[in-house]
Amino acid sequence: MPSWYELSGSKDHQFRFVLKAANSEIILTSELYRTKASAENGIASVRANKVAKGEDVMNKTHEPNTSVTRGDTQGVARRKSWRLAIALWVSLAAVTAGSIALPSVAQAADRLTDKEVEELLASVEKSRSRFEAALDKGLKNTIMQGARGDVNTNEFFDDLQDQVSRTRERFKKDYSASSEVIALLGYATRLETWVGKQPAGFQGSNEWNPFASDLHRLAKAYNTSIPMPTGGIARRYNDNELIAAAANVERMCGPFRSALDANLSSKQGLTPGNRAAALQQVDALTTHAHALNQSLANKQKGVAEADMLIRQGLTIVDWISKNPISSSTNVKWAPLRRELGKIAFAYEVNNRNLPVQ
Predict the structure, then answer these.
(1) Which contacts of 65-71 are long-range, i.e. CB under 8 A and separated by 24 or more positions?
(2) Over the stretch 304-315, which tens digit does the pLDDT of each residue have?
(3) pLDDT tens for residues 149-168?
(4) Is 3.30.230.10 the CATH number for 4-97?
(5) Which of 11, 42, 74, 283 has the most CB atoms within 10 Å of its CB?
(6) Apex CA 338: angle with CA 334 and CA 341, to 5°?
(7) Where exactly are the structural domains of the chain?
(8) Does the pLDDT of residue 77 top 50, yes or no?
C-alpha cells in the first residue's frame, strides 16, 4: 500500500496535514496553517519536490466542521512548504524506498515558548487562588497527611502560594527555574493525593479541575509528570538554549561527517554504496538541523522540523549501535548526540538514546 496524506482541521479553525507510511505510521506532521488552501498548497509543494518519489500518493481529507477564513498568502505557504520539503528530502526518500526505517518514537510536542510558560505560571497562580477561595473553611482547617509529616491545610496553601510566586519570579529567559518547578510539583503531588481523598463533588471540586490541568501541563513542559517518576528528572530548555542547541547540531554535523568518512574508508569489506548510504544519513541530519534553524530564526516553533531531526538522530544512533565507530569518530559524535538530546528534551521527547548528560 502506498503512503498518503491526511488533511485535518483543529479546534481553533486551523489546518495541518500528516504523511503516513504504508504501515499507517505517521512520518511527517506539518505545522498549523491558517486556511485549508494553505495546507493543500503545502501538500502540493511537498509532492512537487518528490518527497514521496515513486509512490502513488493518495490524499485523504477529514473535513472539519468549521468555517474557513482567508488570510494566508500563497507566498508564505510556499516558503514554509519549501523548507519542509528540503528538510525531508534525503530521509523520507529513503523511507518510501524502503532502504531505512525511521525509529518509532514519541512525536515532538508543540512546545511552550518562554512567553507561554510565563503565561502558564500566571494561570497556575490564578487557578490556585480560585481553588483555595472555593474550598469550605472547615476543610481548609483540617490536617493534611503526608510522607514528610502532617501539616495544617491552611499552612500548606500558604506555602504553595509562596512556591508559585517564587517560581514565577525566578523564571527568566536565561533561567528555566527547573529546581523551583520540581519543588512546586512536589506540592502538586501532595495536593492531588489530598484531593483524591475528598468526597465526590466536594466544595471546590469544579475549581480543582483547571488547577490540576495547569499543573500537569507545567509538568509536561519540564519533561516529567505528577507524581514525578522515581529517579526521573524535570528539565526544560528555554528558547535561547534551544536555538543554541540547534545551531550546535548543524555546526557539529560537518566534523562528524568527516570523521565518519575517514573511519568508513579504513574499513575493509565495506562497499562504496554502504559507505555512501551512511554518509547520506549524516547529510540528512544536517539538512534537518538547517531546516530547524531556519524555522526558529523565523520565530516559528519548528515542531515538524524538530520531529524529523530527532527521528533522524535516532536513526543514526541505531546505525552506530550496529556498526561501531572508532574512538576518534565518537569524539565528534558524543557532543553532537548530547545537543540532539537537548533538542529532544526541548520538544518534550524524553528518549534514553538521546541523553542530555
Answers:
(1) 66/9, 66/13, 67/13, 68/13, 68/35, 68/36, 68/37, 69/13, 69/34, 69/35, 70/35, 70/37, 71/34, 71/35
(2) 899 989 999 999
(3) 788 899 999 999 999 999 99
(4) no
(5) 42
(6) 140
(7) 4-97, 114-221, 239-346
(8) no
